[in-house]
Design goal:
- Helix content is 65%, strand content 0%.
- It contains eleven helices and no strands.
- It has helices at 14-28, 56-71, 83-87, 98-106, 110-125, 129-144, 147-173, 175-186, 199-233, 239-254, 260-269.
- α8 (175-186) crosses α9 (199-233).
- The longest helix has 35 residues, at 199-233.
- The termini are far apart.
Length: 273
Amino acid sequence: QADHNVIMLPFRSPGSIMRSVSTIISRTLPKPQACALRLPPVTNRMPPMLVPSVKPQMVVPLQSTAVRSLSTPSAATYNKPSPEVAKAIPRDWSEMSNDVLMIYAAHGIHEAHTEVLVREVMSVDNVTWDVANKTVEEMEEFNKSGMRTFTLPYYTGIFVAVTGGLVSIPLCFHLDTVMWFNDNFVTADVAEPKDLETWLEVGSWAWNWMEPPLGQISFFLLALQFARNQMVNLKLTPYTDRVMLYRAQRLVDKYPQYSPLIVSEFAKSSDWH
């Protein structure tokens, strides 16, 4: 209107005003110095997870080096023994230390028990190794004396087992042997000639009377084995353990001046023949 002085200013949006203010401030303030740390640009997206990147060329050489070190070790990795060390190695039971002998003796090695007994004789009788060794040889001979009677059941079992196993083959498959056994012990009806043409047919006919005794013998041996296992579980010494204890006590009574433990262990580890 004519009666009012009106000043018309150009219209600006709030966004343009903020940009103008930021431009004035950036021109007025000093420029910041360069920094080594650079931040990633601000975006509307979520920043991806930072996963360390490993280059293959940095890993493969290390792995190949480790494999080579395990498969083909370098010569400088191990120390080689000197001739003096090689000459000092024990070559016989008599050259081993007491600790090593006791370890071997704990595993039931008779040679170790023998050497331990030799050193026991040396300590008690105050003699040299050669003299003590002769004493131990006499003890070994006495320990094996009279064992033929105790080993008779074992030899009998071996003879019966081998003989029975070999004889059972012709008694089952050989026609003439089967016919003889049937005529003298079984007296069963003889099969037709056409059913006895092959050894398998002979075995099928003979199995009618061979099966009961063979099955019963097998079950009897199985029952004996089961009974022996129960005796071991109850700490009841079977025949073999009783014989070993008898030998040990007999040798201890023969040589009471020596350690009963060393003498008995020597007697138990000795052969029976």
